[in-house]
Automatic annotation (TrEMBL):
Lineage: Bacteria, Pseudomonadati, Spirochaetota, Spirochaetia, Leptospirales
Keyword Transmembrane helix attached: no
Organism: Leptospira stimsonii
Domain Pyruvate carboxyltransferase: 3-270
This protein's name: Hydroxymethylglutaryl-CoA lyase
EC id: 4.1.3.4
Length: 298
């Protein structure tokens, strides 16, 4: 029973942080994550600097990474310009991102859903030639900050298009962390009629503390790939009120205690989270992280 954990702390975790984090600290954070046992790490985004100033050092950070080790690094690429930059930086995996809500897509990447998908065609073609894997994100799979409830049929439609274009996996973005397990169940019941479970990943945010319950529901329905961020860092600047991602600390605690090995050392993971907590100068929210902190301080 193998579970894939994609650590999105350096990207989703930091993209909304107001305090600028030095490139060397981002690199050190990634090193600590690797030391803890994370093997899939979303390191940064190749996007417009004005859109996400915190990640404007994508190329500089990527130049520091060890491309010959066992870790799979990936980066977000909204268009061909971003794709080319990621390829030149050494990435063997990139992620394209769109949503099931028109308003969110417009605010996030200044495109309609259809325009975004048309734009990705070139990325998929180039990636096939270049031997680069493409992951597809579909955001707002349950609720949208602008449109409210999202029809699962729209999630299915967009996911299928990205898979047909060549995405190896669809990460289902529960962008604002408002969803509950019954909603996850309703969504997955529909998706799993047409998409195999091993092509889907859960990307839950934890605004209402429902992320781990949503993982449990998705896991019980066969999903074995989850995104999370150390300490529960995170949030999307285009989704007001969205708190951090599901914390890797909580995910690892939940899986290990449920008898699912993760290969991640919780103590070393705690150190990675703690390092970033100091760098961003605000307290992290992960319950597991905080419980361990109290124990260590006692
Ligand atoms: P645009 O303004 O429509 O782009 O932005 P444009 O093509 O008109 O170009 C405008 C300028 O941007 C040009 O520069 C381009 O060169 C530059 P100028 O000529 O004016 O000097 N530009 C770029 N620069 C660097 N890298 C690029 C790039 N592309 C254009 N790749 C765009 C459209 C998509 C670029 C912009 O809206 C953008 O970068 N958006 C990124 C938003 C983002 O990163 N959001 C957060 C990630 S999504 C998320 O968090 C959700 C997720 O976690 C899942 C979930 O939780 O649901 C994944
Ligand atoms: Mg996210």
């Amino acid at each position: 029973m193998k579970v894939k954990i994609t650590e999105v702390g350096p990207r989703d975790g930091l993209q909304n942080e107001k305090v600028p984090v030095a490139t060397k600290d981002k690199f050190e954070f990634i090193q600590l994550l690797i030391r803890a046992g994370l093997t899939n790490i979303e390191a940064t985004s190749f996007v417009k600097k004005e859109s996400i100033p915190q990640l404007a050092d994508a190329a500089e950070l990527s130049a520091l990474l060890n491309w010959n080790g066992p870790v799979e690094f990936s980066a977000l690429t909204p268009n061909t310009k971003g794709y080319e930059a990621a390829k030149n930086a050494g990435y063997k995996e990139v992620a394209v991102f769109t949503a099931a809500s028109e308003s969110f897509t417009k605010k996030n990447i200044n495109r309609t859903i259809d325009e975004s998908i048309q734009g990705f065609k070139e990325i998929f073609t180039l990636a096939r030639q270049d031997g680069i894997r493409v992951r597809g994100y579909v955001s707002t799979v349950i609720d949208c900050p602008y449109e409210g409830k999202i029809d699962p049929k729209k999630v299915l439609e967009v996911s299928k298009i990205l898979l047909d274009q060549g995405a190896y996996e669809i990460s289902l973005g529960e962008t604002i962390g408002t969803g509950v397990p019954t909603e996850v169940e309703r969504l997955l019941e529909l998706l799993l009629k047409e998409i195999p479970a091993d092509k889907l990943a859960g990307h839950f945010h934890d605004t209402y503390g429902m992320a781990i319950a949503n993982v449990e529901k998705a896991f019980s329905m066969g999903i074995r790939s989850f995104d999370s961020s150390a300490g529960g860092l995170g949030g999307c600047p285009y989704a007001k009120g969205a708190a951090g991602n599901l914390a890797t600390d909580d995910l690892v605690y939940f899986l290990e205690k449920s008898g699912v090995p993760t290969g991640i050392d919780p103590g070393l993971l705690w150190e990675a989270s703690s390092f970033m907590e100091k760098a961003i100068a605000r307290e992290l929210q992960s319950r597991t992280y905080l419980a361990t902190k109290k124990k260590r301080e006692a």
